[in-house]
Design goal:
heterodimer; A: 521 residues; Alpha-Beta Plaits; 2 domains; elongated; B: 303 residues; alpha/beta; Rossmann fold; 37% helix; globular
């Protein structure tokens, strides 16, 4: 094995492991700075940061551009976690399985054009389908992370059987099934493709690969063939997962070469080397487009455009009423609740790439991938979904770890005074009104007492003060009514500042509290 | 347990404690047991417990050597001890310490929290206090920890999923904190038992007061210790700020959960009949809310 190849492998395994750890860590063990450092290496998140104001973390994409101009697409071999995943997936197959395929420049062009078109049109849907970091993040968050949690909980159970509480259980409050199935199907398809054709996705559909491919036309160092010694035996071509070495023409297509160095050690004549090419040659094969690639892209993009338009019934409506369930007024959230720091729906959906880093970091599990909550603007973008939990008042992790800045890292004090939405009381669903018995679960959980209980005909009924409500969703989560909640949070399109809970000096008397120093019995 | 036994176990198990506080030896020897309820005022939470439990006859009357103990404080909220939303950590620590000193085989502490359980355990200060006292924090937020039981005497609550460690324990000690509550008016001892069941939503849907009383027909703590050191006067049960809390410096200890809740309600400023579940539990003969009919020992701690 060539030395370069060994180094490439070690670094990519390390980066992949770190990236996976960041997404899978469910206990908050990995420090935020590690998460930020690792995700800042990714092109698209860092580019979004750059375009929306910069910051240290925005330097990542500039570094990648520099790296590519110097060394070619090392990003795709070393820093891209999805690329490393593909390499791992295709590794188990024996060598000699690849053969040269002509490039699909037009398809790649179409993908990039479609993406730009949709982004300018205000939708990240296509980016979500094709961008590698997001695909990796969703796979890790929705598939790998729950599996690790199940394993942890099994281990915890084993320990407990032995009387030890060394391993803590981590109760999952639910699974966002539609998003998980969606992410799973994409992952399975891509892994299958990788096992069959190596880096085909990277060199046809991946927008990052397309851009870095163009940049690498100017790379100083590249893999090149010494024409004077090459015998066109094709051994290099058989191990090239990018399928970019044409042994007949004795060319390496640098736009597709991911600089994995797999070919270097295979040449019996030693004709392959990596470095400065003495006489730079043009990239071959640009004119060959055997498949009707444009049509495929059109079909894919049409699907992507149509899918979010199909509005499925909202979360609440799918619960079916059982005998005894009495809250029958349907509750439909018109506007999703966006995470604290995201400023509002528009600010958020223009920057979020649905990598779900926030979802994987959220300790209360209230952040979940939405399905069609954002409509066309973003399939799978995270929103607060109180049926899974409620936003922890003392936590602003999502803003700290967001790779794109879609969720800004606002101070905890500001977060605690930011109104993401307002609680809406649905009187006809409330236990107190329906059954004439006390409940108060909503008010119990309210961190600001925006939901307070007020005596009405001898019973205590919830009353909402929307000015001091922060939209955390605790009331909705706690509300016990079935099938529909009697209180829910309607998201604010634009976040506003909540008013401070006023000290109410007259209130303690209302509760019946009396200051005593003796024994009142 | 007679007085001699008490002194024997007390001296053997708690000699270090007693020696470090010589005046308490006097208090302990004064403690006759034989009273139904002890109310203590004026000291620190742990100090009041040391005095109060001695008046009850000592921890040795509750916990015997080798027994397994579960202590159930209120750890429902991810708040600091100063907010008064959770049981005073010093008190919980002292209860655990005394159980260990009485020879308990193991002392486990748990609560099915409302907020994130690890944060609640940590930020309430209870985890640290329990660990240093020789107890074990036990998780209670996974369904697999719960076992279904029938509640034959229940009217609204016919069955419930109860934490299996509580069901398996030889001794169960309930350590609630005295708080205002938005709907039931007060969070007291019987209501604190909601923290050993899985599905609290069912209680809220099906007459909360009745369910609380129903469950107390099934789950009876061997000892209940009401923490009234900090009392949440308003905005309960979680509170909004430290401004909701008054420093009352009270503690009530009893075996009868209804009497304990009745006395605690008085301590807050309400009548026992103001709290629905006290009325219902009394009518269901879980215990007696009539504070005139029981023996109450009142202890004032000064300095």
């Amino acid at each position: 094995m060539s030395k370069l190849r060994r180094v490439r492998r070690c670094v990519s395994v390390a980066v992949f492991a770190l990236m996976a750890l960041v997404f899978i860590d469910f206990s908050g063990w990995v420090p935020v700075w590690v998460s930020d450092a690792v995700t800042s290496t990714q092109v698209l998140p860092s580019l979004i940061r750059l375009l929306s104001g910069g910051g240290v973390l925005a330097a990542g994409c500039l570094a990648v551009v520099g790296l590519t101009l110097l060394f070619g697409r090392v990003y795709c071999s070393v820093l891209c976690p999805l690329g490393s995943l593909f390499d791992g997936a295709s590794r188990s197959r024996s060598g000699g399985r690849y053969r040269f395929h002509p490039p699909r420049h037009r398809l790649r062009g179409c993908v990039v054009a479609c993406l730009l078109f949709s982004v300018v049109g205000g939708s990240f849907v296509l980016v979500e389908l094709f961008e590698p970091f997001g695909i990796f993040g969703r796979s890790a968050t929705l598939i790998a992370r729950p599996l690790v949690i199940f394993a942890n909980n099994g281990l915890s159970r084993l320990f407990e059987m032995g009387g030890s509480y060394l391993v803590s259980p981590w109760p999952l409050s639910g699974v966002a099934w539609r998003a998980t199935v969606f992410a799973g199907v994409i992952l399975v398809l891509l892994v299958w493709l990788a096992r069959r054709r190596g880096r085909l996705y990277c060199n046809t559909l991946c927008p990052v690969g397309a851009v870095l491919g163009l940049l690498s036309l100017g790379a100083r160092h590249r893999v090149w063939i010494d024409l004077s010694t090459c015998t066109s035996c094709g051994r290099c071509s058989r191990v090239c997962k990018a399928e970019c070495i044409d042994p007949q023409a004795m060319t390496v297509d640098v736009t597709r070469c991911v600089v994995c160095f797999n070919c270097l050690g295979t040449c019996p004549a030693g004709s392959l080397s990596y470095g400065k090419q003495p006489q730079p040659l043009g990239t071959g094969g640009g004119l060959l487009t055997p498949f009707s690639s444009e049509r495929r892209v059109l079909i894919l993009s049409a699907l992507a455009m149509v899918a979010p338009g199909v509005r499925l019934p909202p979360v609440h409506a799918k619960a079916f009423s059982k005998p005894g369930d009495r809250s029958l007024a349907p509750v439909v959230r018109a506007c999703p609740i966006t995470p604290p720091g995201s400023r509002g729906v528009d600010h958020f959906t223009r920057r979020c790439i649905s990598c779900l880093r926030c979802v994987s970091a959220c300790p209360s599990q209230v952040l979940q991938p939405s399905w069609t909550g954002y409509g066309l603007a973003g399939l799978m973008m995270p929103s607060l979904q109180p049926r899974f939990g409620y936003c922890n008042n003392g936590c602003n992790l999502c803003g700290q770890v967001c790779p794109t800045g879609a969720i800004e890292d606002i101070p905890l004090e500001e977060k605690q005074m930011t109104q993401l939405g307002k609680a809406m009381f649905v009187r006809e669903n409330c236990v107190v009104v329906l059954n004439r018995t006390e409940c108060g679960a909503c008010s119990e959980h309210c961190p600001t007492k925006a939901v307070d209980m007020v005596v009405e005909q001898g019973l205590r009924v919830p009353v909402v003060n929307p000015d001091i409500c922060i939209g955390c969703g605790a009331c909705e989560h706690a509300c016990p009514t079935k099938p529909f909640k009697a209180i829910y949070v309607e998201g604010n399109r634009v976040h506003v500042a909540a008013k401070k809970t006023e000290a109410q000096p007259s209130k303690p008397q209302e509760t019946g509290f009396r200051e005593t120093t003796e024994f009142p019995f | 347990m007679n007085r001699r036994e008490f002194i024997k176990t007390g001296v053997v198990a708690g000699s270090a404690l007693l020696l470090s506080h010589p005046f308490r030896l006097l208090a302990a020897s004064e403690g006759q047991g034989g009273c139904d309820l002890v109310a203590v005022r004026g000291g620190g939470a742990a100090e009041m417990f040391r005095r109060g439990i001695a008046e009850m006859g000592g921890m040795g009357t509750i916990v015997r050597s080798g027994q397994s103990v579960v202590v159930k404080p209120n750890i429902g909220w991810d708040t600091a001890p100063e907010r008064g939303a959770c049981t005073n950590p010093e008190l919980v620590g002292e209860v655990v310490r005394q159980c260990v000193a009485a020879g308990a085989g193991k002392v486990e502490v748990l609560d099915h929290t409302c907020d994130l359980w690890k944060s609640c355990y940590r930020n309430s200060g209870i985890e640290a206090a329990v660990k240093s006292a020789g107890g074990q924090m036990v998780p209670a937020n996974s369904r697999r920890h719960y076992t279904s039981v029938g509640i034959p005497a229940g009217k609204s609550l016919k069955d419930a999923k109860v934490h299996r460690n509580v069901l398996a324990a030889d001794v169960f000690i309930n350590v609630p904190v005295l708080k205002h509550h938005g709907s039931t008016r007060l969070t007291l001892g019987m209501k604190n038992l909601m923290g050993v069941v899985w599905d609290r939503g069912y209680w809220h849907r099906n007459d909360l007061h009745q369910c609380i009383a129903d469950f107390s027909t099934f789950m009876r703590a061997d000892l209940t210790i009401m923490d009234g050191y900090r009392v949440m006067r308003t905005n309960g049960p979680m509170g909004v700020s430290e401004g909701d809390v008054a420093l009352v410096k009270a503690q009530i200890i009893a075996r009868d959960p209804v009497a304990l809740d009745a006395a605690s309600a008085r301590m807050f400023g309400l009548e026992p009949d103001d709290v629905g579940y006290i009325r219902i539990a009394d009518a269901m003969k879980v215990g007696s809310k009539d504070l005139e009919s029981i023996t109450i020992r009142k202890v004032k701690v000064t300095g």
